[in-house]
Amino acid sequence: MSLFGGHRLGPVSTKIFDSLCEAQKSRNLDNNLTHKLRLLLEQNEELEDVHEEKNRMRFKTEDGKLGKAAIDNCQNVMRNMKPVLLPILAVTSEKFDEMISVLGKELEDNDSYLDISRVYGRKKGNI
């Protein structure tokens, strides 16, 4: 299962994100934690007035600087994950670099997006 939940990824993008999910699983990290944050905060007896804001970030340069920054940031995150992802993908370092270049193109060409959530609450007794 991809972090993007299949939100219009190309074949190379899917491989990269699936390998990231595999890396997270191997470290007992929850890929779906963001979907549980609101419930976790609501169950915290020290918090009240819990809110969740959802936004969709598109990987499109036509969206201006934000769209371009989203693509660049995604590629940079994956580049930084290279030591972890290389053994999972079982590719050479050069092939990985090529895949990261293709990732940026696929994100743009496939109208890929990432749903982002912001969850926050107020500590009880604070005004």
TrEMBL record:
Coiled-coil residue spans: 30-57
Judging by the UniProt lineage, the source's domain of life is Eukaryota
Q: Which organism is it from?
A: Acaulospora morrowiae
Task: Kindly state which keywords UniProt assigns to this record, in alphabetical order.
Answer: Coiled coil
Any idea what this protein is called? 13969_t:CDS:1
